[in-house]
Amino acid sequence: MNSTLTESIVSLINNVCVITVMAYAVSHSKCYLDWLDGHRTFKNKSYLAIIFGLFSLYAAAAGGVANVRVLGPMLGGLIGGPAVGIGASFFGGFYRFLDLRYAGASEMALSALLTTFLAGLSGGLVNRWYKGHLPGVWTTAIFAVVFEVFHMALTVAMGYKNEIVISTVNNVAIPMIISHAIGAALFVFITKNIMNTRKLEQEILRLDRLNMVGQMAANVAHEIRNPLTSVRGYLQRMQMKNNYSLGKEHCDLMLEELDRTNLIISEYLLLTKEKVSHRKNCSLNNIINTLYPLLYTNAIAVNSTITLVLKDIPTLYLDENEIRQLLLNLVNNGLDAMPSGGEIVIHTFHKQDKVVLSITDQGSGISPKLMEKLGTPFLTTKTEGTGLGLPICYRIAFRHNASIEAESSQEGTTFTVNF
Fold it and tell me: Cα separation of 79 and 134, whole Å?
């Protein structure tokens, strides 16, 4: 085995080990986790640029012949966007440029600087293409391979007259392509696992809260209803008398408040886990079409419209009343988020082994802090809201072995129910 091949293999192993350690360390840092949770602050953006920049600097200085200098800016761009990717490229890019210039390889120096910046920019563009989400492991590996092939081609094109450049590319091209593919895929794999674990933890926490409220509902709600029923009955008797001393408007107000309290208790009872579901095979599209006149009327009343995009989907094992309740809650939330009017799009489609229901509004979006707490009972931003609408939706989804996901931006919010 010749020395160049040995150096390439040692360099490749070294870089893969460093990437693994870096991926684990970065993925457990507070700023990085805040970024994944949607807190895209300048502080967190600067932190990502510095971390991936330092990794690029280390790779350029100590990565050996198969160094993964461009991987730092590339990953920074994939996760944080163009600004993070370009910011990270300054560290390793300028170090490698000065190092090669000092060694007398000016053609390779310029190529190294250019490709490092392009790695950060291209990673950021992929981030924009995926709307801020990480691409899959295989997609990332292919992207890294394609970019590194471009890197090699650019180096050869800029230094084709220099035998040292051609010789270097011939010796390190394959190890560098392999290093970048493995490194990028490994980092994304670790990151996605951590993201999925955090989502699972949040879902478990949300279900625990719902279970607690459900147990309280079963024990408390009926006890509250009994005295309310008695008070309402006596008020109605007083209302029927012509000479009762309590003003009619006061009596009407008390009855309205009692009815509102009863409504809150009814919603509260929907959270109880002891509720029996009457499920049967039925069409989700038919349920939506049946409910559409009511939804349309509610939308027209607030100067909004509702558009149905219903694709062919298989039948599901559903409780029709509960699915109507889920639809009403999600659509009403969307209408409330558009006080100046707008469009609600209800979309159903078949994706892999799941039937998907999505409801999209054109509101101003949900803040990252509220996104973390979605589904928490009694959490509401409405002046007259009970804070039970979304928890009821989560409970209904749970009873149907479905999951609810939310995506929000300044252009609107989409709630997706995966059956």
Answer: 6
